[in-house]
Amino acid sequence: MRAARSSSKWYVVVVFFLFMLLHQADKLLIGPLTPDIIETFNITYTQMGAVTTGALIVGAIFYPLWGWLYDRFTRAKLLSLASLLWGVTTWLGAIAPTYGTFVAARSSTGIDDSAYPGLYSLISDYFPPRSRGKIYGLLQLAQPLGYLVGMVLALMLGGVIGWRSIFYITGGLGVVLAVAIFFGVREPERGGAEPELAQVEDLSRFKFSWQEVRGMFKKRSLVLLFIQGFFGVFPWNVITYWFFVYLEEERGYASESILFTMAPAVLVLAAGYPLAGALGDWLFKKTLRGRVLVALFGVFMGMVLMFATITTPVGQEGRFFALLLATAIFIPFGSPNVLTSIYDMTLPEVRSSANAAQNFIEYGGSALAPLLAGIIADATSLSTAILVICTSTWFICVIFLALAARIIPADIQALHRQLEERASQAQ
Q1: CA-based angle 22:153:179, to the nearest 5?
Q2: CA 376, CA 50: separation in Å to the nearest integer?
Q3: What does 12-27 look like in DSSP terms, one character per residue?
Q4: CATH of the domain at 152
Q5: Does residue 66 form part of some domain?
Q6: How many structural domains are present in the chain?
Q7: pTM, entire model
Q8: Based on C-alpha coordinates, what's the Rg of the chain?
Q9: DSSP characters for 96-132?
Q10: Using one digit for the tens of pLDDT, what is the confidence trace for 118-163?
Q11: In degrees, to the nearest 5, what angle opens at C-alpha 324 toward C-alphas 53 and 393?
């Protein structure tokens, strides 16, 4: 298939949006359900942090494998398999009778958590570079909305049907989406959306090679983005898994207050993804540094505003809420722009591997974040854990993004020269 029909493109976007929305709801339910799970198994913050850390470690291990599989085989069918694994592993967690079996079952959910590189790679072959940032931002909108869906499920149904039944529901949705992806998503040609390759008849000749994978690590700006990614997901994991508990236990919020506080914050955060993608696309047309500069600005503002939010005294809830909303809009600025920047520098046949390498490095570092936050919280407080981890890692990200912004134009231009050479050789 040379190019997908317009209707096919948007079917894929809708199905992948639903996949990400419901998968993130299932994945992030662990945060809102943490108090119930702690009570069920009678465990500490540190032990609960180990539950999430286990899934993140498994996800990190599987990222390289998924990346290689996606670059070698049909991505759509592999994504269907990932969705099926999501359903099965979630059901295993729902029936776990002890803390040990729950840790093992929940850790196994990391297998499908690392399946996203194929999704983003496949989308890159449906949409050209000039619009990818907006599409990735739209898809990543599903992440915070998934957290919101999970939070509503936990608060509205957790006390009625129990946390185990909620996991039965979300696991079942994974199986349904596996069928929708298997029968409905078609596989485009790799590189088919690249302008330089528009006249090349046979793109299948350009196949995955380890030489090209090794070549990625010679791109200095790509390496810098990988390094910042090591630190960049620490705050996200701490916020998603511990902020709910922080509001309840340290700021004294009741369940309804948590919902009315977090729902607007998550909606604002969700709006940040497509906004960041659109800003990145707009500035990228003016300068090849554009996407990284948008990411840099967002991370810096998020760091400053998070510090102001967490240090707001208990009782000043109006100020806390306003600062939380301001922080939320900037937190997502890095995600779609870093991802699109990575694809701006890598060949189509190794993009899943590039994304997998990024996520492996991110998970390799941030897998310890929930456990580290639990340890700090047991020793001091959750507010201290959130503040220390978020501000310190975001500061490090600012440094590496600034370095990447200086040199990224050369690496982007090098990719375009490679694509032009391919096109000329094919004529």
Answers
A1: 30
A2: 13
A3: HHHHHHHHHHHHHHHH
A4: 1.20.1250.20
A5: yes
A6: 1
A7: 0.75
A8: 21
A9: --SHHHHHHHHHHTHHHHT-HHHHHHHHHTTS-HHHH
A10: 898 899 888 888 888 889 888 888 888 887 788 788 777 777 788 8
A11: 45
